[in-house]
Amino acid sequence: MNTADSLVEKFRDKRFKITPQRMGIFKILEGNLEHPSAENVFDKIKKIYPTISFTTVYKTLDILEKMGEVLKITIDDERKHYDPNTATHHHIICLGCNKISDIEGGHINPTLPDGILNEFIPSRYHVSFYGTCKDCLNEQ
Amino acid sequence: MNTADSLVEKFRDKRFKITPQRMGIFKILEGNLEHPSAENVFDKIKKIYPTISFTTVYKTLDILEKMGEVLKITIDDERKHYDPNTATHHHIICLGCNKISDIEGGHINPTLPDGILNEFIPSRYHVSFYGTCKDCLNEQ
DNA sequence: CTGTGTGCAAAACGTTTGCATGCCT
DNA sequence: AGGCATGCAAACGTTTTGCACACAG
């Protein structure tokens, strides 16, 4: 769980500057379970800091990703999403509204067939469940 | 497994025309385990049918995807990949060379925690293992 | 013969980059 | 004061679209 404060500290360690723009982005990411795209982050921070540019949002997210503080999620064809929860966890994606939600709990532990381990060293894995959420079911 | 012939038949059923361009794309997809991008398909078919355009490749892949004859794989940030193997199966992705390979066998059966099934009806799932392949290990 | 498919060029889209100015440290 | 961060505009790579011509049915 990345608090804005912990990100500030990590930025200071690396001699990156703490600007109001970056601070705003940190706060938006803190505890964020929505898997926002860069645009989502931009829209939110624009309300607080209306002069911010897309460039700054992209660059800040890029730094955070390189630092390992957010994960880039490649689930959506159209745009990249970011997840401040960097612990191993998995996602359900609604094919109706494209909403991405976390799966709670450690119930999912896929393992590779033995033979593959001779040819491939896995470092992480990710499970995506595609389906329909309650809201979209009701709409049909 | 989609043979070119079976795709021809499905196109005929839907009154889509069979052109040499489409036929060439079908043949490239037949038994293809490389998870090609649109560009990969374009490069291959260009050798056989040099006047073909990107537009035709994109449109044909789009039709095939809407018909459910290929799956769009969203694993790579940079571009979309297509998989003519529409049976449930999973992938290993080398972080060194970005190669996507199939995992053989049905060893992987992730299940959702019970609680989630009240809120979400899964229709399919996909597991991605990220790691390093033999070739890339040897290079280091 | 009719209408769908093709291919060009241009647009669209999300994302990245170059550069002058601004501001954190 | 110095140098990194910002924000604009332009570039980028992939994908989509509009349209006139071609050709499969």
SSE topology:
The structure is a homodimer.
Chain A: H1 4-13, H2 20-29, H3 38-48, H4 54-66, E1 71-73, E2 81-83, E3 90-94, E4 100-103, E5 120-133, H5 134-139
Parallel strand pairs in A: 3-5
Antiparallel strand pairs in A: 1-2, 3-4
Helix pairs in contact in A: 1-2, 2-3, 3-4
The first copy, chain A, binds a DNA duplex (25 and 25 nucleotides) through helix 4.
General description of the model:
- The structure is a homodimer of 140-residue chains.
- With 140 residues, chain A is an alpha+beta fold.
- Chain A has two domains: 4-83, Arc Repressor Mutant, subunit A (Orthogonal Bundle), CATH 1.10.10; 90-139, Dna Ligase, domain 1 (2-Layer Sandwich), CATH 3.30.1490.
- Chain A is 36% helix and 21% strand.
- Chain A is built from five helices and five strands, in the order ααααβββββα.
- Chain A has helices at 4-13, 20-29, 38-48, 54-66, 134-139; strands spanning 71-73, 81-83, 90-94, 100-103, 120-133.
- In chain A, the strands form two sheets. A three-stranded mixed sheet of chain A has the order 4-3-5. In chain A, strands 1-2 form a two-stranded antiparallel ribbon.
- In chain A, α3 crosses α4.
- The interface between A and B is large, with 41 and 41 residues.
- Chain A binds a DNA duplex (25 and 25 nucleotides) through α4.
Structural class by helix and strand composition of chain A: alpha+beta
Our Rg estimate of chain A from Cα atoms comes to 17 Å
Main interface: chain pair and counts: A-B, 41 and 41 residues
Number of domains of chain A: 2
The main sheet of chain A comes to: 3 strands, mixed
Q: The CATH topology of the largest domain in chain A is what?
A: Arc Repressor Mutant, subunit A
